[in-house]
């Protein structure tokens, strides 16, 4: 087990965004964190990465309570854009190298080409799909045990979604663990091992996708339609 969320709770002004969420994250798997807008996915991820302080509960990472060391082992991609307009893609690589210990600039440069971008492209001129690809490959070029991608497929066309799904699958190995939050289940269904369903701040169901299919004949998308 690489990480654990123990009864994690976050309240904003008395209203609970995440309610006693307990999840065990096993190493070497791809997880889908599935739920509609406002179900608490982002808040939960931010608590797991140390960006948001839990109101209650605990995060265990690599066998110990979350601490500063975990910061370099968890690569989180937020939904907010975080590059400066004046940069080009090559500068994003340099910026990440300065900022993140273990950022693999060579891998980043390879991935830039693989997804059809180039280092000369200016941030302010990127389409939404190009920006989405850049955010994902920059995050995956960090050396980490756990990658958390918050809504990597939102607001982009099918081709860009396929490219992102492909790059997630081909750049991570069985040593890495990936958690992808989304409500676009069909797009990620083929690559996820586990599905975690969140609604109104709580985990309402969790399963191994293949086992569930064998046992009940239901796909991750069937379950989503049933629950949400
Ligand atoms: N900083 C904040 N202050 C107050 N309320 C917040 C804050 N962040 C999140 N919330 C509330 O917590 C709830 C869960 O939000 P969260 O963003 O975690 O859900 P989500 O599943 O990631 O949804 P989305 O896909 O829309 O981002 C929402 O009702 C939201 O309004």
Automatic annotation (TrEMBL):
Pfam family, one: ABC_tran
Keyword hit for Translocase: no
SUPFAM superfamilies assigned to the protein according to its UniProt record, in alphabetical order: P-loop containing nucleoside triphosphate hydrolases (SSF52540)
Lineage top rank: taxon: Bacteria
Entry keywords, A to Z: ATP-binding, Nucleotide-binding, Transport
Domain ABC transporter: 3-225
MF (Gene Ontology): ATP binding; ATP hydrolysis activity
Name by which UniProt lists this protein: ABC transporter ATP-binding protein
